[in-house]
Design brief:
D-Amino Acid Oxidase, Chain A, domain 2, alpha+beta, seven-stranded mixed β-sheet, FAD/NAD(P)-binding domain, 13 helices, eight-stranded mixed β-sheet, globular, 3 domains, 424 residues, binds flavin-adenine dinucleotide
Length: 424
């Protein structure tokens, strides 16, 4: 059995683990990253870099290095009713520069940029085909881990083990941290289509138990996100491509030419959605980040961004822990205490959006559409929602009075007023 040593051992090189490894490498901290996949991901997934994620990539020196032919700036998102009626338009240009835009990338582009930057860092060793199998403990504290690397068993002694291994985290399980893992009854069929007609701005349709998002991507491509029942992907496929295209044409007749470019199921994938709540993210010598600690519904548009922000904050704390030789849960808790308020707020907000946006109930749908229309005419409330989705707010976008105003039950004397300097 191989025994290796590192300052930090990271399990999972996904959205959070890869950023953590690179940020630690840039601080010269010896890190081993174990990833069970055989190599960088290649599957289809929609990628929207929100302003807070752009800031992280900028801090890592990568934002301006993303290949221009794989990224697309999108400023305006139109929320519409099924059939086409526009309800509300959100403009990222209202946010403070320089991150006053959404960046839509082709699948895995940002992730590949992070992984290849890691490969050139001498203080980090990234191992694929390495699956976490258990924790090493001494006197009740975590002092490393075991893994299976191909056919070999590996032991890594580390001062801190980071579980960045996603919603079904095995590290969390080994730490015996109880998790409330909820799988939503709806997930997303995602497709990469051709922009047969120009689509410069994003469209997001809501109806009775219907959601379809169309986001322009680089290379004259368009991402479609279509909500379907979890477990129904095979049935959707059995009904055939034309049935799916027709369902989309009924939702947005203006985009028929785009939908007609869906000609192969290989252009599609199904992404399930889940939420994780845990009473703690830390133990003596170990910490959880990203989905392992707090997966959230994608309505927040923030799951991966929050994993990245976790990584940056932890990378700021860990050098102090190394200097002080203190890896106790109490010391690591600083990270959790700082991060938990925003994450909890986003989880709650996304769940509220599930109630209103995913609804099949006509009364709730009517209230939802009414709120969208109010937001369209209310710059203050619209900005609150936008800055939350952009990852710039720590506190909930609406208080009780704001909710009544959003529902159109109270007038808003400050409807035209947006706080100067953003993020309010
Ligand atoms: C439909 C959908 C849309 C989404 N849209 C957005 C969006 O617009 N914006 C956004 O910010 N987020 C979005 N997300 C969320 C985002 O994908 C996740 O929140 C993000 O990937 C979490 O990063 P992570 O590093 O915590 O976990 P992951 O990215 O899941 O990475 C975990 C890694 O750990 C590895 N691993 C697991 N177990 C082991 C093991 N035992 N040993 C070694 N390695 C292991 C896995 O292979 C994986 O590489 C969306 C999610 C879904 C489902």
């Amino acid at each position: 059995m191989n025994i290796e040593e590192a300052d930090i051992a990271v399990v999972g090189a996904g959205g959070g683990g890869a950023v953590l490894a690179l940020a630690l490498a840039q601080k010269g901290i010896k890190t081993i990253v174990l990833e069970q996949a055989p190599g960088p991901p290649s599957g289809l997934r929609g990628e929207i870099l929100q302003p807070n994620g752009q800031r992280v990539l900028d801090q890592l020196g990568l934002l301006n290095k993303l290949p221009a032919d794989s990224t697309r700036t999108v400023r305006r998102f139109h929320f519409c009713k099924v059939g086409g009626e526009r309800l509300c338009t959100v403009d990222y240009g209202d946010l403070p520069p320089p991150y006053n835009r959404a960046v839509v990338t082709l699948p895995n582009v940002a992730h590949h940029a992070i992984l290849s930057a890691i490969e050139s860092e001498p203080s980090v060793s990234l191992r694929y085909r390495s699956a976490f199998t258990g924790l090493l403990r001494e006197n009740g504290r975590v002092v490393g881990l075991t893994a299976k690397q191909g056919d070999d068993h590996v032991t890594v002694k580390a001062r801190v083990v980071v579980g960045a291994d996603g919603a079904f985290s095995k590290v969390r399980e080994a730490l015996q941290i109880p998790a409330d893992l909820f799988l939503y009854p709806q997930g997303y069929l995602i497709a990469l289509l051709d922009a047969a007609i120009t689509l410069d701005e994003a469209k997001y349709f809501v109806g009775k138990r219907t959601i379809l998002g169309l986001f322009p991507a680089a290379g004259d491509k368009v991402y479609a996100f279509y909500m379907i029942k979890t477990g129904s992907y095979e049935q959707v496929k059995e009904r055939g491509l034309s049935s799916l295209r027709n369902a989309w044409i009924a939702i947005d007749p203006a985009s028929e030419a785009i939908f007609n470019t869906l000609t192969d199921w290989k252009q599609t994938a199904f992404l399930p959605t889940g939420r994780v709540r845990t009473p703690t993210w830390v133990a003596d010598g170990a910490v959880l980040i990203g989905d392992a600690a707090h997966a959230m519904n994608p309505h927040a548009s923030q799951g991966r961004m929050q994993a990245m922000v976790d990584a940056m904050m932890l990378a700021d704390l860990l050098p102090d822990c190394l200097t002080a030789n203190d890896y106790s849960a109490g010391r690591l808790k600083e990270f959790e205490t700082t991060r938990r308020p925003q994450v909890t707020m986003l989880q709650k907000l996304a769940d509220e959006q599930v109630v209103y946006w995913n609804t099949a109930n006509p009364v709730i749908a009517c209230l939802r559409d009414r709120v969208f229309r109010t937001l369209d005419g209310n710059a203050r409330l619209r900005y609150r929602v936008l800055s939350t989705t952009a990852g710039l707010r720590q506190s909930p976008p609406f208080g009780m009075l704001d909710r009544l105003m959003a529902a159109g039950l109270l007038p808003d004397p400050s409807a035209d007023r947006v706080a100067a300097g953003g993020a309010q």
